[in-house]
Design brief:
- The chain is α/β, with parallel strands linked by helices.
- It is elongated, with a radius of gyration of 24 Å.
- Strands 7-6-8-9-10-11-12 form a seven-stranded mixed β-sheet, sandwiched between helices.
- It is 44% helix and 19% strand.
- The protein has two domains: 145 residues, Rossmann fold (3-Layer(aba) Sandwich); 147 residues, Response regulator (Rossmann fold, 3-Layer(aba) Sandwich).
Length: 325
């Protein structure tokens, strides 16, 4: 072989294995999804998050590895899964519900993007919304100004309502302020409130029995992971006792509740991808302000209204983003 031909072949071989050639294969970024709930209850949230990553150019099998785990409502299982995912050293976690806490405790720290139903400051996840200050950031779903709106919608649908039960998890971060906002709105609307706390599944039956004994006309459910887990039972309670159940998230209405007004949960999880993209590109979570919802929805259940012998006003139907028939 001539010397010039040899050098040409050798140079070509080196080039094929050079970093420039390797650049044709995009780097794969690992992202971990950890949900406190079960797959069935949160699969729509997971798919919305995945769609958000796709919108930003992240595709599994190309430049993204997405590891997903569900805690099935068990704190111990969620804790173990956080450690399991942490060992894979993802660029960031995306968490649902209380899964933010075990993910945040990993050593060394891994960035956590949460979609959190309560107040992330009260929960100790961040120092403030504007300046998270640690390795966590994301979206907080608690918006106190929406509490009064839910009671207003309830009054609009059921003008005769007078006694309303509040069903809430007292361990939920921000719950005292949500309760105070509810009382202020009820006073303004001339409604009598009774408060029924349930901090765990065992206490929920007793809380519902107490609410039924209070001869209520309606029930407002403060949305959080515990209430979401038992949304089917809450819908069945309303239908059985002919009580209008309203809450802040669409899944409660899909499970038999009468109406909801609150943040669009799927849009919030889709938005969580934005934070992951910024973290992957080098921004510290401490410098990414926590966001509050910007997209809201009203959902009503016409089937439930018929069972309750309630006529949905045209004004509510016109404003509704979705009517379940």
């Amino acid at each position: 072989m001539r010397r010039r031909q040899f050098l040409t072949l050798a140079t070509g071989t080196i080039a094929a294995g050079s970093p420039r050639a390797w650049a044709q294969s995009p780097r794969k970024h690992r992202v971990a999804w950890l949900a406190q709930g079960d797959r069935e209850a949160t699969s729509a949230n997971f798919e919305a998050m995945r769609a958000g990553l796709h919108d930003l150019g992240y595709d599994e099998g190309k430049n993204l590895v997405l590891d997903s785990r569900w805690g099935d409502w068990s704190n111990d299982r969620t804790e173990a899964l956080a450690a399991e995912l942490g060992a894979l050293r993802p660029a960031a976690f995306i968490t649902q519900g209380g899964a933010a806490r075990p993910a945040s405790r990993l050593t060394p720290p891994i960035p956590v993007v949460f979609v959190f139903s309560g107040d992330p400051v009260d929960a100790g996840l961040v120092a403030s919304l504007a300046r998270p200050g640690r390795h966590l950031t994301g979206i907080g779903l608690l918006a106190l100004e929406l509490v009064g709106k839910r009671l207003e919608i309830l009054k609009e649908i059921v003008p005769s309502v007078s006694r309303v039960a509040i069903l809430a998890n007292p361990n939920h971060a921000g719950e005292p302020r949500e309760l105070a906002a509810s009382k202020a709105a009820a006073d303004r609307l001339g409604l009598q409130l009774s408060y029924h706390p349930a901090g765990n599944p065992a206490a929920l039956d007793a809380a519902l029995a107490a609410a039924a004994g209070a001869r209520i006309d309606a029930m407002v459910v403060f949305p959080d992971a515990l209430m979401l887990r038992f949304r089917e039972a809450l819908g069945a309670f309303g239908l059985r006792h002919k009580v209008a159940v309203v809450s802040g998230w669409a899944p409660f209405v899909e499970s038999g509740g009468l109406a909801c007004y609150g943040p669009n949960i799927l849009q919030a999880f889709r938005r969580s991808a934005y934070f992951v993209d910024r973290i992957i590109k080098g921004t510290s979570p401490a410098d990414l302000p926590v966001e509050l919802p910007t997209t809201f929805e009203t959902v009503v259940n016409r089937r439930t209204a018929r069972v309750l012998n309630v006529s949905l006003p045209p004004s509510v139907l016109l404003r509704a983003d979705r009517v379940i028939d």
